[in-house]
Amino acid sequence: MSVDAPTKVIPPAREITTKPRVSDQIFRGIVSTFSFSALVILALIALFLFIQGFSALKAQGFNFITSFEWNVFVDESGKEVASFGLQAMLVGTVVISIIALIIAVPLAVLTALYLTFYAPTRIKNILVTVIDLMAAFPSILYGLWGYFVLMPMAIYWAQLVNKWLGWIYIFDVPEPIFSRSPFIAGIVLSVMIIPIVTSVSREVFSQTPLERVQAAYALGATKWGMIRAVVLPFGANGVVGGSMLGLGRAFGETVAVFSVLNIVYRTNFQVLYTQGGNVASHIIQRFGEAGATEMSALIAAGLVLFLLTLIVNFFANAVVTKTVKSGR
Amino acid sequence: MSTSTVKPTKPWAATPRDRAMMATSVGLAALSTFLIVAGTPLKGKLAYFFVFFIAWLAIDSFFVFSKAGIKGVRNGLAEKLTFLGALIVMMAVASILWSVISRGMAGLNFAYFTETMRNASIFDPIGMGGIAHAIVGTLLLIAISIIISVPMGILTALYLTEIKGKASKFIEFLIQAMAGVPSVVAGLFIYAAIILNTPLRPSAFLGGLALTILMVPTVTRTAQEVLNLVPQDLREAGLAMGATQWKTVALVVVPAARSGLITAVILGVARIAGETAPLLFTVGTFDAFNFNPFVGQNSALPVIVWGGLNGGAAESIQRAWSAILVLLIVVLIIFTAARIFSKRAMKK
Prior knowledge:
Chain A is mostly helical. Chain A contains twelve helices and two strands, in the order αααββααααααααα.
């Protein structure tokens, strides 16, 4: 029995290469190009704010940060005299944001602990949804609420604080007007940043290594004992990072602060008194009536604000990322 | 041989004695609250609430101490305080929602949704004029922002999840930095870069550009999260079938993540729908319909609220509350849609 020997057809050797196809090259090219849009946008923001703010920065020099006068006028000889210093508003920004943090961080941490360790599942789901929703509220809504609903109550609280702690300088007031104060703006901002601080804290707390939690329980710890010995030391950095993210948010807040605060260009540490301001609301306030010289100064103020939030956010994100990773 | 079945017991459940103690402590706390508030110049519902809570904590701690000692007291206090924290946050939210609904309803009527402010001023009695033009303006702004920022955001997310290039870490960092850009800076940037340098004047298009800066980070981060949720097996299956990476992404990964990507877009819209500050620089105000996004100032819901609030008269403030109610309802609808889509994405 013989079978015809099959004719051997040797296919040409297949070319094996790691070189991507043309379609893939195009795909990768487009995606990679677009991925740099964030870089381009951030660079453009810094560039254009610098270009337009340059004349003011050059004229004022370092005084732009340290001086606390903001006025421009035409003197007798018809020359324009301008002196712009952002110090009063920078101080105002920091004062309001710190008040907001002092109120928001304890509440947010307590809420995060409740959500992570105490709340029954159903309540937890509802609360998480509500807090996410809170983050989506328009900032002008907080402004409106702060002015019409919160302010009447907050004035009363401010009077109480002033009555009992008025001997401390920051709680003293030159005259008893308590409306539209940094204190009230701080409360409004605190409500605005509670969602972000809560959600970051919650995420960090939930990353607590389970074996450490169980070890604490096995050693006979109560729930609070476990939280104090394991969760809080582990999550402390994350809470700090979350608070800094909230701080970045508070630094840049505009319309809510503008609505509830009596914006007066003066360095003011007396938080209960009706004057204050922050950089963002100052820009909004002066924008409408600013001439070319002042416009440049306002844009330079925007640049300062931009860099400030960039730095705060940078540290915040570094801290949060590090903490979340250390739990995995 | 007798067998005994063990009856399930719940030793941790509250005994009648515990319940009695609970009732006693609440009663005592209420009583002492009443006495304290009556005896001191404190006033208001919040004062009642806090005094009651503190009194209850103190009295209840006493009972707990007799049962479980100092450790039990600390444990109980921690639980109650965390609950108090969550309760205060919820009270603030409830207060915001309640004030918007109760105050906003009064200004709503049919004309409010169909008319513009062309023949009315914000100081006219309620019933004259409406916000139809602002609704159109807001829709235009949202549409423009979506058109620009969705390709940017999703392609950046694809770079971070599919290509995983060398620059991934850096770009992730930049996106985080961009998420922190204050909204007022975004508006000021468009003003400084475009309005001061080119003949373009404030319009819906420029407003959309400013909002894009705020929207891209949200879209990117959410899209990145959902793309990371797509199982690696799917990608490998696509490649093993001989598809190129482009085909795998277009025909396998993106369809698998579709619901999640829609969520990303919706969350981005929720982020920008209520932004006010950038619009003041880039969109201006207008009292009638303007369907042309490139020419002429326009209006938007947040700007209406802003104008009404700064108007200062009772009518203008009423208009502000009504407009914020409409805006809040829009945000709620967007938010609910995002929830529905993200649930669908999770199920897969």
